[in-house]
TrEMBL record:
SMART domains: S_TKc (SM00220). One of its GO terms (molecular function) is ATP binding. Belongs to the protein kinase superfamily. It comes from Pomacea canaliculata (Golden apple snail). It holds the Pfam family Pkinase. Residues 602-613 have a biased composition (Basic and acidic residues). Residues 709-725 have a biased composition (Low complexity). This is Protein kinase domain-containing protein.
Length: 913
């Protein structure tokens, strides 16, 4: 726009005071023409209609170098020539769209857009202030010359036969080329009218050519016929002679055959040579036209061919020339004839230069495009021109002609042709025009009623997908394809929709595929094999494309549950089923690999985060295996094996309610909640041992934790340094004597026996006391005890044992009451003290195999430990462990069950006797 304003300001003073300046805006000078190239030609735009035009301007000051009378004569000649031109209407005569306007400074009139005069094209560029680049680089093509000569001949035929007018000054200055490349006659300043328009052979008034008059006021001497100068007679053959000289000048690059330089004497000498002229003297003229040009330059007017005869020369039957001639008369043809012509036009266009196609062939096609029935025949040629043209030429000449055609829905071939050339359109059309004109045409094609158009559109869309902006692809194109896939009843359209989506995956991102494409596949109603395989193909591309990268979670939760049922569809054959299974296996492999890698990383992180254990008391069972619980001979069940294999074996042992630490120097019993354990060394003495729980996972210990740890270690060392308790054993003989001799204190007797148990232990191979892990009572001892008990049927007073059965939480109940409540006397029951192989079962006192109730000896009272004396208190469920706690008075008490009873307890029957 800025350039246009500069040009407009530069020529704003060209038409000062001229009325034409009110209707036209002048852009810039493009050429010159007329006698002596006095007319300046400007490109212009009509203000009211914005149509392009050309304005011819003659500045009167340019004739100031001649006399006043000659200047007035020249102005009259120029004014008369324009007035005569305005009266004529023919395709080969320049059309005037605004008559001549005169002001004090200039003459001006407006015509159809003009490119240049033939004289300018041949190299004469006088009276042009700034020569345009297009004019400097312009070169006439042979086909243009052939067709231009024919056009001039057609114009002369009209003048001679219809207008009864003699041009009188045929030369390159009087011929102009329009923007479309058409050669047209102008410069009627020296035209001659017929004396009798009614006769078939008109006669024209002759004007003598005088040497004493300036050449601007007379016809161009180098192109005049000899009879016009020598015989004082002229007619239609005179114009044909001038046409022959013009043809020679065109092929000779502007050089004339008669070089007179405005001298009449020189003309007469050269004219005599014409009588003896040979064809070789016209070497610049092509051979096919040379003889006919020689006839045109014959001295006898009657020998010269007329315009109609010249048009039939075989030289003008060349294919390109015939094509241009046909386009000139296109409006006269029928549709069938036009269609046949347009079918062969692309072959001709491929052989012609780009400029000829754009300026000579395209304009007639654009005019014909208003006939919708002819558009399918015109489009291939127009798109071929678009392929030849540059980006700028396409936008200036071809795109404006195609925009109205984008909206056509009928005939259907129009949309098909555009679809086939969509890549070309998108590559050369500006983005703004693509959004405005091209993409709406694609959307209309997807919504068309014809399945053929839909299929073609779907097959072509992937070819130009990279030219479509991603927002348009995501928000406009893909939704329409999905809608078409669901709404259509044609299987081929549905399959092509899926294939189109699969080919467009390369232009989508991961999240759009996960959120929009894959969920859409599950909504497709049909289950034909072609549809199923298309769905499988989309999943396969999504799986293998590294850019999309479907996650394992989506595979496991959404995709595999959808694909597996499809794989067993009854419509699939063996090959298709194998394809489904191959993709499913790939997906399963990806899920397995990624999830295993994730779990391995998590496990490694847990291992790295574990802190070093500060104190760990490791124990071994009696066989050195480290298990605190006795082994069962029962084989593991299948469920146990499965849980063990999947890492859930810890749940199988979750019912264990204590920690057992077994050391080589003794057996320690500890509760789960206590930090101090009771240790029994090899000498049978018990000593408190500090058992530190496993520290949580930490990298470092705080200061408070370190202080606490130091205190525990000091307490442990202090307890270890205390002297062992060595109770004095009591012999069996003394017990028997006491029983036989008189009243007996059963509590003291039982305590004495307890001391003897711990003092009479014998070490075993592992360093543990005999019977520490297994109960040492044999079947013989059981039978002996049972026999002694059964032998005493008399009532026995058991009140001495009441203190052992007292619970701090319940009301005391004597053993006699418990026995009487059971409905049996002690004489009918047996008293059995035993331990199961399971460490969780307590030592109980109750019904034996021969009958009688079982009396649990749990919930016993907490008895303080006195140096040199061991007191048995509360029996907990954890028999092997004896928990040592600190009472409020600072005393130490032992609670728990004994896991190892001394073999001396086999004589308990003696106590009862």
């Amino acid at each position: 726009m800025e350039v246009f304003n500069k040009l407009k300001s530069a020529v704003s003073n060209v038409l000062p005071g001229n009325p034409l300046s009110r209707d036209y805006d002048l852009i810039g000078q493009v050429a010159s023409c007329g006698p002596g190239l006095l007319w300046k030609i400007y490109a212009a735009v009509k203000r009211s209609t914005k149509e392009e035009a050309s304005v011819f301007v003659f500045e009167k000051k340019s004739a100031d170098h001649i006399s006043r009378s000659d200047r007035e004569t020249l102005i009259d000649l120029l004014r008369g020539g324009v007035q005569q031109l305005t009266k004529l209407r023919h395709p080969q005569i320049l059309a005037v769209i605004h008559p001549i306007e005169e002001s004090r400074e200039s003459l001006a009139f407006a015509t159809e857009p003009v490119f240049a005069s033939l004289s300018n094209v041949l190299g004469k560029l006088s009276n042009i202030s700034s020569v345009p680049r297009d004019l400097q680089e312009f070169q006439l093509h042979d086909m243009e010359i052939r067709h231009g000569i024919l056009q001039l001949a057609e114009g002369l035929r009209f003048l001679h036969n219809d207008a009864k007018l003699l041009h009188g000054n045929i030369n390159p200055e009087a011929v102009v080329l329009t923007r479309q490349g058409t050669w047209k006659l102008a410069g009627f300043e020296f035209c001659l009218h017929s004396t009798d328009p009614q006769v078939s052979d008109p006669m024209f008034l002759w004007r003598e050519w005088r040497g004493d008059i300036i050449h601007l006021l007379q016809p161009h001497l180098d192109f005049l016929a000899p009879e016009y100068v020598l015989t004082q007679h002229c007619g239609a053959p005179s114009d044909m002679f001038s046409l022959g000289l013009l043809i020679y000048a065109v092929f000779a690059k502007g050089m004339t055959f008669l070089q007179c330089n405005g001298q009449l004497s020189s003309y007469k000498k050269n004219a005599e040579k014409l009588r003896h002229m040979t064809a070789n003297q016209l070497g610049e003229v092509p051979e096919g036209l040379r003889e006919h040009v020689k006839l045109l330059l014959n001295m006898e007017p009657a020998v010269r061919p007329d315009a109609a005869q010249l048009s039939k020369v075989p030289y003008f039957e060349e294919l390109g020339c015939v094509t241009l001639r046909y386009l000139d008369t296109l409006f006269q043809r029928e549709n069938i004839e036009k269609s046949n012509f347009f079918k062969g036009l692309p072959k001709v266009v491929a052989k012609l230069p780009k400029r000829v196609n754009l300026h000579r062939i395209l304009p007639p096609l654009v005019k014909e495009s208003f006939n919708a029935d002819m558009v399918p025949f015109l489009l291939p040629t127009m798109l071929l021109m678009a392929q030849q043209a540059s980006q700028l030429e396409y936008q200036q000449h071809i795109l404006p002609a195609l925009i109205p055609l984008f909206k056509l829905q009928s005939p259907v071939q129009v949309v098909l042709i555009f679809m086939q050339n969509m890549g070309l359109l998108l590559s050369k059309t500006p983005k703004s025009d693509i959004q405005t004109h091209v993409l709406p045409m694609i959307f209309r094609a997807l919504e068309a009623d014809s399945p053929q158009i839909q299929e073609l559109c779907l097959s072509i869309i992937p070819t130009f997908a990279e030219l479509v902006e991603y927002p348009t692809l995501k928000n406009s194109l893909i939704p329409r394809i999905k809608k078409l896939c669901l709404a259509t009843s044609t299987l081929t359209v549905r399959v092509n929709s899926l294939l189109c989506i699969g080919q467009l995956l390369d232009y989508m991102d991961r999240w759009y595929v996960m959120d929009e494409i894959l969920p859409f596949l599950s909504t497709i109603p049909s289950r034909e094999p072609a549809v199923l395989m298309s769905i499988l193909g989309i999943h396969k591309v999504s799986l293998e494309d590294s850019k999309l990268g479907i996650t394992k979670d989506a595979l496991a939760s959404k995709i595999l549950p959808f694909l597996i049922p499809l794989s067993v569809d009854s419509n699939l054959n063996l090959t298709q089923f194998n394809a489904f299974m191959a993709v499913i296996r790939d997906m399963l492999g990806k899920v397995e690999g990624e999830h295993r890698s994730k779990l391995e990383q998590l496990d490694q992180m847990k291992q790295e985060q574990r802190s070093v254990e500060i104190t760990r008391v490791s124990g071994q069972d009696c066989d050195g295996s480290g298990d605190t619980a006795p082994h069962h001979n029962k084989p593991p069940s299948m469920m146990d094996k499965f849980l063990s294999g999947v890492g859930l074996s810890t749940l199988m042992g979750s019912q264990k309610s204590g920690l057992v630490d077994v050391k080589s120097n003794g057996t320690s019993f500890s509760s789960q909640t206590s930090g101090i354990s009771m240790s029994v060394n090899q000498q049978g003495a018990t000593s408190p041992v500090v058992s530190t729980p496993i520290a949580p996972k930490k990298t470092t210990l705080s200061l408070e934790e370190k202080l606490k740890l130091a205190q525990q270690q000091e307490q442990q060392q202090r307890l270890k340094s205390q002297s062992s308790l060595n109770p004095t054993p009591a012999s069996t003989t003394s017990i028997k004597n006491k029983v036989a001799g008189g009243p007996r204190d059963l509590t003291s007797t039982l305590m004495d026996n307890g001391r003897s148990v711990f003092s009479s232990r014998e070490p075993v191979g592992s360093g543990l006391p005999k019977g520490a892990c297994n109960w040492q009572q044999s079947n013989n001892s059981r039978q002996t005890l049972a026999g002694k008990v059964d032998s005493q049927r008399s009532k026995v007073d058991l009140s001495a044992f009441d203190s052992l059965m007292t619970s701090p939480n319940t009301a005391p109940q004597s053993l006699n009451q418990m026995m009487s409540a059971s409905g049996q006397g002690f004489g009918a029951t047996g008293l059995q003290l035993y331990s199961h192989s399971n460490s969780q079962n307590p030592i109980i006192m109750g019904q034996s195999t021969w009958g009688g109730p079982r009396v649990g000896m749990t919930q016993g009272p907490m008895v303080p430990i006195v140096p040199g004396q061991t007191t048995f208190g509360q029996l907990s469920n954890d028999w092997p462990a004896a928990s040592v706690t600190s009472s409020a008075m600072g005393q130490t008490s032992a609670t728990g069950n004994m896991s190892s009873a001394a073999s001396n307890y086999s004589t308990l029957g003696d106590l009862l006797g």
